[in-house]
Design a protein that fits this description.
By secondary structure, the protein is an alpha/beta fold. The protein folds into two domains: 5-89 and 182-268, HAD superfamily/HAD-like (Rossmann fold), CATH 3.40.50.1000; 94-179, Putative mannosyl-3-phosphoglycerate phosphatase, domain 2 (Threonyl-tRNA Synthetase, Chain A, domain 2, 2-Layer Sandwich). Helices cover 38% and strands 21% of the residues. The strands form two sheets. It has an eight-stranded mixed sheet, with helices on both faces. Strands 6-7-9-8 form a four-stranded antiparallel sheet, covered by helices on one side. β10, α8 (219-223) and β11 form a beta-alpha-beta unit. α1 (28-37) runs parallel beside α9 and α4 (119-126) crosses α5 (130-137). It is globular, with a radius of gyration of 19 Å. Bound molecules: magnesium ion. Magnesium ion binds next to loops.
């Protein structure tokens, strides 16, 4: 029986990881089945490279991954015949972001960014362990910062960043200075890589791309695949996809919903 190649992209927080305790174990049955079938699972999150790398090890995942909301794609050695690990940046690099921020600081902008904090200070600020704070500081294309100026000054700051093709995105605790990209850029890039690879291997076997996410920041990633799966969560009602996309919505939240939906899709495609 012929069956298409499958490729899965997944958000982490609130999707594969539980919103409250960050556990993924409820998704273990589906994860094991993906691994056994050799179906790539591309993790795509706001987390940094070392943060996602640590989780990949825990999951036994060896596939390429997307860091910092699409700032960069990490391609492990051998994934596409590459001789070394590769990092592909989208939008501005972290060096560029820091350069623009420093320039703004010289001009009077008042803020405190991850680059200004030791791992110890960041740990105190966020409640992370010092080791985890160290991993959060190792960044490729975004700089979280705490604004210390007035609201009017913030507006001027934002305009100055926009002139340098940077933007500010509000997160839970920090403002994130970053280039113009989102989670879909990395997903589309890898989708093309896999398509090429499978075409070389066995010609015309179709590739079906699946993405799972729980929030508006997953919207574009969900729209760029064949089967979007919205995992139930605190913001999932805000994710609205075109009816033609036939989005699947999980009944259960987080990893339980993830497990259920991925197992259903695997059965549907003959895995
Ligand atoms: Mg999420």
């Amino acid at each position: 029986m012929t069956r298409p190649h499958l490729l899965i992209f997944s958000d982490l927080d609130g999707t594969l990881l539980d919103h409250d305790d960050y556990c993924w174990q409820a998704a273990a049955p589906a994860l094991a089945k993906l691994r056994a079938a050799g179906i790539p699972l591309v993790l795509n999150s706001s987390k940094t490279l070392p943060e996602i790398r640590a989780l990949r090890e825990e999951l036994g995942n060896t596939d390429p991954f997307i860091v910092e909301n699409g700032a960069a794609v990490v391609i492990p050695v051998g994934a596409f015949g590459n001789a070394t690990d590769e990092v592909v940046n989208f939008g501005a690099t972290r060096e560029r972001v820091l350069e623009v921020l420093e320039d703004q600081r010289q001009k009077g902008a008042r803020f405190w960014g991850f680059a200004d904090m030791s791992a110890q200070a960041l740990a105190e600020e966020t409640g992370l362990t010092i080791a985890a704070a160290g991993r959060a500081k190792e960044r490729h294309g975004t700089e979280p910062l705490i604004w210390q100026g007035t609201d009017d000054e913030l507006e001027i700051f934002e305009t100055a960043l926009a002139e340098e093709k940077l933007r500010l995105v509000a997160g839970g605790r920090f403002l994130h200075a970053m280039g113009v990209f989102d989670k879909a850029d990395g997903a589309r890039f890898l989708l093309n890589k896999y398509r090429e690879q499978y075409r070389e291997q066995d010609g015309d076997e179709p590739l079906v791309a699946i993405a799972l996410g729980d929030s508006p920041n997953d919207q574009q990633m969900l729209e760029s695949v064949d089967i979007p799966v919205v995992i139930r969560g605190v913001n999932s009602e805000q994710v609205q996809l075109p009816a033609a996309k036939h989005a699947m919505r999980s009944l259960k939240p987080g990893p339980e919903g993830w497990n259920e939906c991925v197992l259903n899709i695997l059965v549907e495609y003959g895995y």
